[in-house]
């Protein structure tokens, strides 16, 4: 691997993992700072029940900003989500200006509310598994997310969530 | 203030019916009765015709713990059967959906095959092959003697597939619905609909608590989205209308989608004959909801799993003829509110989760109030009262006094 390509891979890796930390913390602003202004975000799943690909959520960067700013106005489960991510592949374009990455993802819910917080709080449950399919724009040492598709394997999401995955 | 127990607090001047006893949501015996007396007797929508669009397509489901399979035959007719092999009671088809055109390891193409002993059935439920039947059963049993248990099935009201376990159901589906769908009839029956969204939730709560939520709009205070897009004179003028058999619908108003930060008018995309940005709601006994709002139809189907557990299946539908762009728009509109990551659904499910946590089996019995009277207007809780009047008929129990304790107490006082 040439040095420039290795630098791109490192930049992509840094962005993916840093994004996980920001999302874990609910630091939406810093997460959005990792995204290009043209960024598109979606959560998708395939339903064997209706035999169709589905889009559970779809927003651009501006809409994601509105969505996250709105959170204090909504009644949400208070349990934070924690991501465990492993980057499987990073593919860099020949001109080193773009890259794609596939990341395996498990998201855990650290119970705060649960069903009965007196009993459930402190417990960690698996919330969902899936993958990030990301596309990046490379500028110098920086990899900005231009597209993130969260492709879920888990389709039984029970209460669901207002949080970004 | 001294502590008061639930008997010492002032009892509101409510008639029976304006409240229910919380044990109707938590008692195992009542739940078991509901399965026998209600769910095994009435029409239940189990899926949509667009989920079995081609010949030999199937979809599996269940009502009251009875496994069901819906298949579309080569004659294009949709039929429903118990998904149970008549041989040894094996669940016939294990997948949730698919197509029988391809053969399975134990069986031939275009047949339903029990993987266990390879008994095979056609799309009409006839048994067409029993391996080595003559050798094992001689003349005592032939394939003509057995077949799948067929269930009454109708495709109606926007193409939903309705099934009843009751062979002697008294009313056709149209009669059973008693006109509750008329308010959206042209919108959903002018041209075929198609499911574009499906997800399910299993919640530790009673199925009726979900139906209660769908039957009252007072909880719109919980939804930021609904407060900013509704809560005007037109919203508060909406009315609940009761129908026979416990069904209710709520008439429409013009939703101000633009008032929501992420809002987008639904003006350019609707359903046939359905004015833009409208919102009708139909609640069908004993726990189904049809919600036609703006550019998408949502349908909730409950499958009660226990007194304190329910599975809710959520479907989103548009027109089968949608362009790709229109379909995408409908999906975005639907899921921004009602998807698993939407603004409203999460809040609704938190609501019944909290109720479920406080009304577990053995919890202190308490009165759950259904007593708002506002001339049937939107925050009147008449929808729930209408439901429980019907529930009482089927169950032979008074939801305000399900264990007949108040009656017994009155008898005792009279005797004294």
Outline the structure in words.
- The complex is a heterodimer of chains A (165) and B (416).
- Chain A has 165 residues and is of the alpha+beta class.
- Helices cover 25% and strands 45% of the residues of chain A.
- Chain A has four helices and six strands.
- In chain A, strands 2-1-6-5-4-3 form a six-stranded mixed β-sheet.
- In chain A, a hairpin with a 2-residue loop joins strand 5 (124-139) and strand 6 (142-152).
- In chain A, 33% of the residues are buried.
- Chain B is α+β, with helices and mostly antiparallel strands and 416 residues long.
- Chain B folds into two domains: 44-153, Rieske [2Fe-2S] iron-sulphur domain (Rieske Iron-sulfur Protein), CATH 2.102.10.10; 178-395, Naphthalene 1,2-dioxygenase Alpha Subunit, Chain A, domain 1.
- Chain B has helices spanning 28-39, 133-137, 173-177, 185-189, 207-215, 224-229, 233-236, 324-338, 345-358, 382-395, 405-415; strands spanning 19-21, 44-48, 57-63, 66-72, 78-82, 97-99, 112-113, 120-121, 127-129, 150-156, 160-164, 193-203, 240-242, 248-250, 279-284, 288-293, 296-306, 309-319, 367-369.
- In chain B, strands 2-11-10-5-4-3-6 form a seven-stranded antiparallel β-sheet, with no helix packed on it. A seven-stranded antiparallel β-sheet of chain B has the order 12-18-17-16-15-14-13. Chain B has a three-stranded antiparallel β-sheet with strand order 7-8-9, with no helix packed on it.
- The model of chain B has no long low-confidence stretch (mean pLDDT 94).
- The chains are: A alpha+beta (165), B alpha+beta (416).
- Chains A and B meet through strand 1, strand 2 and helix 3 of A and strand 12, helix 8 and helix 9 of B.
Question: Descriptors for this entry?
Answer:
heterodimer, A: 165 residues, alpha+beta, B: alpha+beta, Rieske Iron-sulfur Protein, seven-stranded antiparallel beta sheet, 11 helices, 19 strands
């Amino acid at each position: 691997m040439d040095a420039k390509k290795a630098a791109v891979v490192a930049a992509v890796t840094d962005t993916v993992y840093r994004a996980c930390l920001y999302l874990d913390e609910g630091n939406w602003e810093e997460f959005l700072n990792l995204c290009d202004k043209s960024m598109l975000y979606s959560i998708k799943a395939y339903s064997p029940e209706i035999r169709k690909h589905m889009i559970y959520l779809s927003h651009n960067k501006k809409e994601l900003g509105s969505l996250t700013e709105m959170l204090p106005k909504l009644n949400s489960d208070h349990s934070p989500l924690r991501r465990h991510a492993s980057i499987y592949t990073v593919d860099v374009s020949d001109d080193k200006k773009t890259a794609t990455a596939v990341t395996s993802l498990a998201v855990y819910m650290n119970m705060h509310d649960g069903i009965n917080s007196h009993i459930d709080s402190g417990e960690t449950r698996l919330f969902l598994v899936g993958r990030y399919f990301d596309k990046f724009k490379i500028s110098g040492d920086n990899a900005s997310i231009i597209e993130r598709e969260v492709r879920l394997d888990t389709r039984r999401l029970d209460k669901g969530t207002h949080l970004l995955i | 203030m001294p502590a008061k127990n639930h008997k010492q607090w002032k009892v509101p001047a409510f008639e029976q019916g304006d409240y229910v006893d919380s044990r109707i949501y938590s008692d195992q015996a009542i739940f078991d009765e509901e399965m026998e007396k209600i769910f095994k007797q009435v029409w239940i929508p189990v899926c949509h015709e667009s989920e079995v669009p081609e010949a030999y397509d199937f979809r599996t489901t269940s009502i009251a713990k009875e496994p069901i399979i819906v298949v579309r035959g080569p004659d294009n007719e949709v039929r429903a059967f118990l998904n149970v092999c008549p041989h040894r009671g094996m669940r016939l088809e294990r997948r949730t959906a698919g197509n029988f055109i391809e053969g399975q390891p134990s069986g031939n193409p275009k047949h339903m095959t029990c993987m266990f002993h390879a008994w095979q059935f056609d799309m009409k439920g006839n048994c067409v092959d029993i391996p080595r039947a003559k050798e094992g059963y001689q003349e005592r049993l032939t394939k003509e003697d057995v077949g799948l248990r067929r269930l009454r099935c109708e495709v109606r009201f926007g193409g939903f597939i309705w099934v009843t376990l009751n062979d002697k159901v008294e009313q056709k589906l149209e009669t059973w619905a008693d006109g509750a769908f008329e308010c959206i009839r042209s919108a959903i029956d002018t041209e075929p609909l198609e499911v574009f969204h499906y997800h399910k939730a299993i919640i530790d709560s009673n199925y009726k608590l979900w139906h209660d939520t769908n039957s009252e709009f007072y909880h719109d205070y919980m939804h930021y989205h609904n407060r900013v897009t509704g809560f005007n004179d037109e919203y508060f003028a909406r009315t609940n209308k009761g129908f026979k058999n416990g069904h209710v619908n709520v008439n429409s108003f013009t939703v101000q989608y633009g008032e929501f930060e992420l809002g987008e008018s639904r003006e350019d995309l609707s359903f046939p004959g359905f004015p833009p940005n409208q919102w009708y709601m139909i609640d069908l006994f004993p726990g189904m909801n049809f919600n036609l709002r703006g550019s998408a139809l949502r349908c909730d189907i409950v499958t009660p799993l226990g007194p304190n557990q329910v599975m809710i299946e959520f479907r989103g539908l548009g027109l089968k003829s949608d362009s790709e762009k229109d379909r995408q728009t409908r999906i975005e509109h639907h899921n921004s509110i009602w998807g698993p990551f939407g603004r409203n659904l999460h809040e609704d499910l938190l609501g019944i989760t909290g109720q479920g946590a406080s009304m577990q089996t053995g919890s202190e019995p308490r009165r759950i109030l259904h007593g708002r009277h506002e001339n049937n207007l939107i925050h009147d809780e008449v929808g729930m009262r209408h439901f429980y009047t019907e529930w009482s008929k089927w169950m032979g129990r008074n939801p305000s006094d399900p264990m007949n304790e108040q009656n017994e107490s009155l008898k005792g006082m009279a005797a004294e």
